[in-house]
Amino acid sequence: MRGLVALMRSPAYVAAANSKSRRSTSTAISPSKPAPLSDPFEAAHVDLLLSPDSPFHQRTTILNTCTSTQEILRTQLPPVPAVLATEVQTKGHGRPGKPWLSENPLGLWVSILLEVPSLQLPLLSLLASLAAADAVRALTQLEPALKWPNDLLLKNRKLAGVLVETISRVNQSPLALLGLGLNLHHQTSDFPPELKNSAISLLQASRQRIPRSQMLAAFLENLTRRLDQPISEAMEDWRQACFQLGRTLSIRVGTTILTGTAETLDDSGNLNLRLPDGSVQKIASGETDFPA
Ligand code: BTN
Fold first, then answer.
1. Using a 6 Å cutoff on CB, does residue 70 contact ligand 1?
2. What pLDDT is attached to residue 35?
3. pTM for this model (two decimals)
4. Other C-beta atoms lying within 10 Å of the C-beta of residue 254
């Protein structure tokens, strides 16, 4: 509690309680000239959009700026569940330790501190990717492809990534720190040259500006649903959305790169890779080539 109170008193905290309630709507824009960016991001909006019995109701804090929402939650450790979003991050990071471009308010940059059953923890990244894809589909009718283990793609480019880290506790199960970065309002010139051909925003893919509050609420609702769903059903949805099964992939596991055919994704989240010698390697986590 101390952590959350300190966070709420910090100058960067956007006092949702002081903001007027405004319901956000998505805006269709003309293909030639996107409207000027206006996307107020307020915790009160998120709460209005969540179902009243959501475990995330009234758990959201939105900052103007911070280093990384992952790092703030890790150091402040507010009571769970806690949702921390921010307009911009100065040191956003992805997997594995790569920088995550978020020095602009053009995307949904959010972390969630939560406690999940230890059996579910290894699957959290997959379940969160599914929930993010559910939210995108619900708000745009677009169907993101999933790239094992944590990316959402549209038009073969990266729309979003999920990062799950853990926080160990003495005599208690670890807490999960779930981060989502989802590109919303970027135009081509907003991406640095090295990302122009591999990243995409929802604006580019759908010509719609989906407000961050709407996307966050839709993500939280779907995350709740996916966490409650039988694992076998969720994993079947993952297999349906994963474009890599049956394809030849290179996967970096630590310092080793394995190349083979992605045969199956099992209910524990392992990717089974058929190697050229005929053997099958079960891979729990790794980086797959992009786009594969
Ligand atoms: C990846 O694709 O590698 C995962 C990217 C995760 C980025 C999000 S943005 C909010 C949160 N804070 C961070 O520093 N990282 C995650």
1. yes
2. 53
3. 0.88
4. 9
